[in-house]
Amino acid sequence: MNWLQEVYQTNKPIIAMCHLNALPGDPYFEKSGGMEKVIEDARKDMLALQAGGVDAIMFSNEFSLPYLTKVKTETVASMARIIGQLMSELKVPFGVNVLWDPTASLDLAVATGAKFVREIFTGVYASDFGLWDTNCGEVIRHQRAIGAENVRLLFNIVPEAAKYVSDRELTQIAKTTVFNCKPDALCVSGITAGQETSLSLLRLVKEVVPDTVVFANTGLKAENVKSQLAVADGGVVGTAFKYDGKFENHVDPDRVIAFMEQVHSARSNLTTV
């Protein structure tokens, strides 16, 4: 697991989500404010996350609801512009997540210099977005073809708002995904953004793939982060950093600071045990 130190400069890293407002082409894009409003809101959130001490930031088109599984060109172009304009102020490692299109995520990573992507790379699902199919072999070949082989791949193996079309235990999914696809990390999630990741599921996944990085992908809070990091190798955090802990709000700097204080305490305790 040396790559965690290489990318994030710490063990048990916290990856903070920078949720972008709806973008051009999205149903809820605010045309009155335009891209300038999207960029300014992203800047405020990014700076608040950095000042609060997070280990990395992941830019995501979180408010491109309802999501596509093959995104439009304007989405990737908009995200590239946003990250490009914020680059000079970005001081921590960053990743990207173009929901829900792994090929587009890799394209954006190469264009911007992102260190990692998180996506649904494997599986076939019945989802809120229709029948959701993937082709990991094609995506990994594309990764190599565009020179993105050093971009770390975070595989979300519990897609939000979706279920495998056939019943498979999560431990079986974890084992076969690691064997067949060689992910850099597995992300274990709750049912939606902000919903706590089951500690028992995290433990089961970590037990069956002990040599693979396992992240708690949703629902981390200041109140549970110590117990979650005792099992997980790190976490992805979005909702907990927002005003009143609500998904639709922007980042609350005080919540970031309070959360990261608990993270530093958890790391210290784990080091001394």
Automatic annotation (TrEMBL):
Please, which domain of life does this record's source organism belong to?
Answer: Bacteria
- In this record, what's one Pfam family? BtpA
Signal peptide annotation: none
**Which NCBIfam families does its entry note?**
thylakoid_BtpA (TIGR00259)
Q: Which family does it belong to?
A: Belongs to the BtpA family.
Annotated protein name in UniProt? SgcQ protein
From which source organism is this entry? Cohnella faecalis
